[in-house]
Design brief:
The complex is a heterodimer of chains A (681) and B (325). Chain A has 681 residues and is mostly helical. Chain A contains 30 helices and no strands. The chains are: A mainly alpha (681), B alpha/beta (325).
Chain lengths: 681, 325
């Protein structure tokens, strides 16, 4: 995913002089004080809270939850507002479900059968994209049948489509408004941050309470998570229309509305389609989560298979999710390219030829639909052709063999790393008096990000104390930072290789896409076998999920270092290593900082998944809050604490990115394009 | 700009797709209506039963057998939907859930939905007795039988130490859905152990499986009935016996967990409907061994729940007949 076009963002820029800034000394002193304080006051003022303990605030939140539960059906406001939303969303979902999945009557076949579905989506892919993505779509959708998960995949497709439709309906107007109005943008940005970083586990149960369990709730949960990208990127697209063009339009005396419709929107279209792409990807990321409130689809298969630790079956369903993600990603990307190209290159002749081809295709679709409604084999994917079960069994064998072979080695790796790295660092954060830790974070925030970042950090830390979860937050912070450092090391190594070679890029990219879209729990079961439930396992999970995005960003940055700079270095006889370390990496510095920012946010979004495999702390509190009513308030508080950590780390690194960019003039802020896309599986 | 022709083209495109689809679907009568459903005719007296599917395999076993009997013997249409166990209760209020086939306690929810809102009724015990406690992998129980008494745990605490628990022994807790007093228990029994939260049942089972296979030390929170017990026969550690009220104050608990009489809960709507499914819910009753067997078919033998249910029902005709009387 994250097919954001970084190309134009990382324009080549001249090298700059490095000097040791004063801030480095400040940080060094702060770290020293920290270390001394840790040794001196080990375990004093650390604000601990046991896993089963709660604070009055948490209890109060429980009461609010109970009140809603008791009054959901009697309060007129609840019934009117929530039921009408639910019925509206449910109706659209049911419509798509009838078309693609099953009807309520008779044999419960979909209206247009599997052959009709494949033909139709292939045609749409060809119409909005090109023939290559059309072939990919045909192969991908047929693969669902071959994997034996066609019905579930279509549920996922139908619900994703519904969520995306509503996201666009809500997101486009809001995005346009935010694009033309600075104040609206200022108000929306933190809300969108909140929506994207609050673990969905936190709002899942209340959502089910308000919108009842089932497809409608699943879609609404998905919308909450998926709508921010399209808002952000629409606003970004409008705002980044060059001022000169907008002024030129003004000088022609057009009205505001005309300017929006004829100048701003057409020029922002590319960015809007990228937003649509990110929204689709975010919606798919919610598939497994939605299964927890009875959202039908592939997520159900994953969840059910994992109850019995059936890795193979879970993998087959997870693989289908990956296939759908890749198909939808490539189609929407192709659509955005078309939006760009068609404006420039289309000639009447080409256009006519295309329309004729599409018209002919439509007849094929009609034939397929007709066939699907008259022949059973075209309506329901023949079970004999499915290989999902056999594939799952093979994967179970491979997974078991893998664990047998490596588990001794991996156990000692985990122990060594935990004792040498995780424990000391976590001790430093949790066993030092909280005031000292706050002070150190402030010094780092000021030095790296500036005053504004420091103020925001202070507010976040104070709020974390207020919700009563300081110690848990520090444990989570420790794991998050360690995971980010490793992610960045990995991303630098792989990203540089990828950025220097197109071929490597082409080979690695599908793997990176898969690592980002495969529901984490599918690959976590073998890891649990290798490492046991531990913080280490949680860190590994976070790295697998966060590294791809960091790698992609760095690869883009390296690939777009100006060719002249590289050639100049080579002509002076620089070795490949010197070219990398002295030219390419320094010139890609701003994308590396950006990668660190995104890496952090992605790592943080895996905290809850980490909680499911022994990560403990905030992640566990969120999971427990979802499962136990008595811990609901604490889980909510933990979710908020994760958001606060996220905002703090994001603002500090954002400010650092902005500083790097200020050195060379850059026209836009990074935040707009690479909206964080954390995925809480 | 190319705006107007573009828009016109989109509209034309969408319209032609819609037209063709309508044409294709309209001309042909769907197979759906052409062929009446095989089970449709018999479904009349029973109707549709919505079964909540909670996320543990023992539950799946109960639900699979119940669904199989309801569909095949009573002609009901059973709709299963996966859902978190506590969220499922909300479904009684709005008709999305008719049956929770295995319920572990949940006094607070029972009060809200059975006593106060009166949208659900207790449909009696499943016959399964739920036990919660501390368990050892069988190899360890065999090698050190003295560990089956909690009094001896401290002696071996260092053997149970892991990277997560440091110098103390690790007591591995699991699924966050289950109530645990373990932190208080460890403190009140003065055990040199630290509770580590694995965070999910999957993680817990995987940990026990690895411990048994590699003969490593592990003690953890577990429960019966559970399919995994039939794969690896975990042994329960004896804690100070449970007496009524010994767990009233969660902070002072120093006794074992009580036995849970697992029961079924169904919606008041289904109860009043007079559907044969309601009678089946009430009569459904079997043993821990029965459940573990079906759960093992599903989890270890990787059978589909339906196939597992069919296998058990075919082999236990007398039990099933008793439910249907």
């Amino acid at each position: 995913m994250a097919v954001t076009d970084f190309r134009r963002q990382f324009a080549p820029r001249p090298p700059r002089q490095r000097s040791i800034p004063r801030g480095v000394y400040a940080i060094a002193v702060a770290l020293l004080v920290w270390f001394v304080a840790w040794r001196m006051f080990n375990g004093v003022w650390t604000l601990p809270l046991q896993s089963a303990e709660v604070t009055p605030l948490h209890l109060w939140l429980n009461e609010v939850n109970a009140w809603v539960r008791d009054n959901r059906d009697s309060n007129v406001l609840f019934v009117l507002v929530f039921d009408s939303i639910r019925i509206g969303v449910g109706a659209v979902a049911a419509l798509f479900a009838q078309l693609f999945v099953q009807t309520d009557v008779g044999l419960q076949l979909p209206e247009i059968g599997w052959l009709g579905v494949v033909a139709l989506v292939t045609w749409v892919a060809a119409a909005v994209g090109n023939y290559r993505v059309a072939i990919l779509t045909a192969v991908g959708f047929t693969a669902f049948g071959v994997l034996g998960v066609f019905t579930e995949a279509m549920w996922t497709f139908a619900l994703t489509l519904t969520a995306v439709l509503f996201s666009v309906a809500i997101g486009l107007p809001l995005g346009i408004w935010a694009g033309v109005n600075k104040r609206v943008n200022g108000i929306l940005t933190p809300i969108l941050d909140f929506m994207q970083t609050l673990p969905s586990f936190v709002y899942l149960a209340p959502l089910a309470l308000l919108f009842l369990i089932g497809p409608a709730s699943a879609v609404i949960a998905t919308i909450i998570y998926a709508v921010p990208p399209i808002i952000r990127l629409t606003a970004h697209g409008i705002r980044s229309v060059p001022a000169t063009i907008a002024e030129a339009a003004d000088s022609l005396g057009v009205s505001k509305r005309q300017r929006l419709m004829t100048v701003l929107l057409p020029l922002a279209r590319n960015s809007m389609v990228v937003g649509l792409n990110q929204t689709v990807m975010a919606a798919l990321a919610m598939v497994t989560i939605a299964a927890l409130i009875a959202g039908p689809g592939l997520g159900q298969l994953v969840v059910q298979a994992l109850q019995s630790l059936n890795v193979g079956r879970a993998f087959v369903a997870g693989f289908a999710i990956v296939v759908m993600a890749i198909v939808l990603d490539r189609v929407t990307t192709a659509a955005s390219r078309r939006a760009e190209l068609s404006a420039r290159h289309s000639t009447p002749l080409r256009r006519r030829r295309r329309i004729i081809a599409l018209g002919a295709g439509l007849l094929v679709v009609a034939a397929a639909v007709y066939l699907s409604r008259s022949v059973l084999a075209a309506a329901r994917f023949p079970a004999e052709a499915a290989v999902g079960e056999a594939l799952g069994a093979r994967i179970n064998d491979v997974s078991a063999g893998f664990q047998n072979t490596f588990s001794v080695f991996t156990a000692s790796l985990k122990d060594g790393f935990t004792i040498r790295v995780i424990n000391p660092f976590q001790g430093l954060l949790t066993a030092t008096p909280f005031l000292v830790v706050m002070l150190v974070i402030l010094v780092i925030a000021v030095t790296v990000g500036g005053i504004r970042a420091a103020v925001i950090s202070t507010i976040c830390l104070l709020l974390i104390i207020a919700v009563g979860l300081w110690e848990d937050a520090m444990i989570t912070l420790a794991s998050t930072l360690i995971a980010t450092v490793i992610t960045m090391a990995l991303a630098l190594a792989v990203g540089v290789i990828m950025g220097r070679s197109d071929r490597v890029d082409r080979w690695l990219r599908p793997g990176l896409d898969a690592a980002q879209t495969m529901p984490a729990f599918v690959y976590l079961v073998p890891f649990l076998g290798l490492f046991g439930p531990s913080r280490f396992t949680a860190i590994v999970a976070a790295i697998i999920y966060a590294a791809p995005v960091a790698i992609k960003i760095i690869a883009e940055g390296i690939a777009h270092v100006s060719a002249e700079a590289v050639e100049a270095a080579q002509s002076t006889g620089a070795s490949p290593w010197q070219t990398i370390s002295k030219v390419q990496i320094p010139l890609a510095a701003s994308s590396i900082t950006l990668a660190a920012n995104q890496g952090l946010i992605y790592v943080l979004s895996m905290v809850v998944v980490g909680g499911l495999v022994g990560g403990g702390a905030l992640g566990y509190a969120v999971v427990a809050g979802f499962s136990q009513n008595a811990l609901f308030g604490k889980g909510l508080a933990a979710g908020v604490a994760i958001v606060l950590l996220g905002i703090m780390l994001d603002r500090i690194t954002q400010a650092a990115v902005a500083r790097r960019r200020r050195i060379v003039p850059v026209t836009r802020r990074v935040r707009d394009v690479t909206a964080p896309l954390p995925v809480t599986h | 700009m190319a705006r107007t022709p573009l828009r016109r083209r989109y509209i034309a495109g969408v319209a032609s797709v819609a037209a063709i689809l309508l044409l294709a679907t309209g001309c042909s009568s769907s197979l759906n209506t052409a062929a009446p459903a095989a089970s449709g005719s018999a479904a009349k007296p029973c109707g549709t039963v919505n079964v909540a599917m909670n996320d543990w395999t023992g539950y799946t076993a109960d639900a699979a057998v119940f669904s199989y009997v309801a569909e095949k013997k009573l002609g009901c249409t059973v709709k299963q939907s996966s859902i978190n166990e506590q969220v499922a209760w909300q479904g009684f209020a709005n008709g999305t859930v008719d049956v929770i086939i295995e319920n572990w306690g949940h006094d607070d929810l029972a009060k809200t939905y059975i006593a106060d809102q009166k949208v659900a009724v207790d449909a009696g015990p499943t016959g399964n007795v739920g036990q919660i406690g501390w368990y050892l992998p069988p190899w360890l129980a065999a090698a050190h039988p003295e560990l089956l008494d909690w009094n001896n745990l401290n002696k071996y605490a260092s053997q149970f130490a892991t990277s997560e628990s440091g110098a103390q022994g690790q007591l591995l807790d699991g699924d966050p859905s289950f109530v645990t007093n373990d932190a208080a228990l460890v403190a009140n029994l003065k055990l040199n152990f630290k509770v580590i939260y694995s965070g999910s049942e999957t993680a817990l089972i995987q940990a026990f499986r690895t411990a048994e296979k590699n003969k490593t030390w592990l003690i953890g929170y577990f429960y019966e009935p559970q399919w995994f017990i039939s794969e690896v026969a975990l042994k329960k550690v004896k804690l100070p016996a449970y007496t009524a009220g010994c767990d009233t104050d969660a902070a002072k608990v120093a006794c074992d967990y009580p036995d849970y009489t697992l029961n079924k809960v169904m919606s008041a709507k289904l109860d009043k409907s007079g559907s044969p499914a309601a009678a089946l819910v009430k009569k459904f009753n079997w043993t821990n061994d029965d459940q573990n067997l079906v759960a093992k078919y599903i989890a270890t033998d990787k059978m589909s729940p339906e196939a597992a249910a069919q296998k058990w029902v075919d082999a236990n005709a007398t039990k099933v007949d008793a439910w249907l009387k």
